[in-house]
Design brief:
The chain is α+β, with helices and mostly antiparallel strands. It folds into 2 domains: 71 residues; 63 residues, no CATH class. Helix content is 41%, strand content 19%. It is built from 3 helices and 6 strands, in the order H-H-E-E-E-E-H-E-E. A 6-stranded mixed beta sheet has the order 3-4-2-1-6-5. Strand 5 and strand 6 form a beta hairpin. The radius of gyration is 20 Å and the shape is elongated. It starts with 8 loop residues before the first helix and ends with a strand.
Amino acid sequence: MHVGLPPMKSTLLEKIRIELRARLDRLAKAAMDAHAAATDPGSKAEGKYDTRSLEASYLAAGQARQVDELAESLRIFESLASLPEFEMEDPIDAGALVEVELRGETSHLLLVPAAGGLIIEDHGLEITLLSPASELYRKLLGMVAGESSEEPALLVMDVW
């Protein structure tokens, strides 16, 4: 049995979806605004050193890529029915919620397929999402509660 009450993974999954939808809505609006600025006749260069239109088009393209990435993350989370449950002695794998001491500070990490870096608050805890692109995600795979590593200074305290 775990010490303390862990966040419910179904609740976490829904909070992730809600946050991704909100971010996607905001970013899509910003991307549309940037596109409008890039194509506005008023942003046409007034001289050979005027790069407003070029800068606006770069911004619009970058934001469009971010919208695509965020939409893909949301699609992935909407396709997940649930996250697996883990016992404290189970090796860490995708879907695990892990309490670690990292460089002397306690952190809560959720290993998920996408949206790495997103922080979700639940039951007074800040839970950071780790995706497979993260070195820490890969380091945690296969570890068990009580196991530690030196680089980075890491101790797995609990697994849900």
